[in-house]
Amino acid sequence: MKIIIIGAGFTGVQLAKRLINGKNDVVLIDNDEETVRHASNRLDCDVVCADGNNLQTLEDYGIDNADALVCVTSSDEVNMITCSLVDAVYPELLKIARVRNYAYYVNTTSAAEKHAGAFSGNHRPLYGIDYMIHPDVEAAEVMVNAIEHGALTDSIAFENADFELYRITVESGCTLDGKRLMDVRTLTDKPVLIAYIESAGETALPSGATEIHAHDCLGVLLKKDDVADFLALCGSKVKRLNKIALVGAGRIGTIVAERLIKHKQRNVFSRFFGLQNKIAKDFVIIENDETNAKNASERFPGVRVFKADITDEAFVHEEGIDTFDLVICATHNHELNLVAAAYIESLGVENSIALVSTAAFADIARKIGVEVAVPLRDTVIDSIMSHLKGKSVTGVHSVNGGSLEITEITLSENSSVQGKALKDIAENGVFLVLLVQKAGESSFAVPIGSTTLNAGDKIVVITTTLDNQHVLEKFGGSK
To answer: Model-level pTM?
Structure first.
């Protein structure tokens, strides 16, 4: 594919890296000379110093034969206008824009719902943008998903699947310590598959002979109801979240609170709190900014809102925050989130979630004891990548800063693996098929070597980033 990216900031550069690793043709455009020079030194692609919202510039660099345009400048308006401009001339080109202003997101959704008939069929989307990526919404959804699963570790959910991929640390002296992967199924009767292992700072796809050691981190595919049993094998257990504190009532914190209180009240609060009328007692919001705290009080009248500093130990002890089961740090200050999460755990809180900027900071957070770290920028890149892989791909998830990639694929009629068993198409160390949903069936299952694949089957596959395009072509039939 040929992709033109407008904006050479962190997101633009990291997105370009992922696409280049997948052997795509990438052009990166930015109008800041220093930014362009810095990006040029890091990327093996065309990096151009020019105005990306100039149609002539875009045509000079091949917009007429490109497959997609991705706008990730610091300006929502530039991103949106550029997509609209290109859509007027090249309506068939896929256009993706990062839009931070939540009002645009809400207004677009509202207009599409209100005028559903007018925007059906061949009508172009609003603003000419095929996909609007809202960083705050993407990050908030990841955080809420972590809360729903007990905030015990990072997890990845798959569309319409009972299984999720959990990142679980192996404790010293546990049942799995010293065992080989091929021995795991003798230790449990639950369907389980170990997708990857992080050991001694390296992440890899394992084989049956791979040994598991204390302090390794496993990527484990499990049904939600089986997590507790497998955690026991790893020397851990699921902790019940009876009391939750949310730190930060800015954009992301507000979205998290809305998802928890309004949209998911029955299946989140009833699950962790028991009775819904206990929300006022067992869910609190802590915000240091007076305006944000006031807005949160008005928006969530059934919730206690403190105008306070989470790093103030006197406040923490006085209000009993150190007795809470979970603290979610979701302020706009990502460094503060990391420090505050680690600090609050040092005072006795057992579980924490921290919003951080990148996967590198997420790795640091885990090393200092934060259970779940949500990297805002990498979450955005994953969302963009899922739209760039073609119609056969319904989801993309990166693992450990992009060293591995998990892709949800619907097998194409052009796929070279049609009618073949997994054992006959295996490539050790290159990919591993985690789940298969046979065409016409409603549920996913963990496959075995004799599982045969056919067009229309949906699969979830984990690959090394360097081999991702090869695997995508193999299963999806793309060229």
So the answer is: 0.76
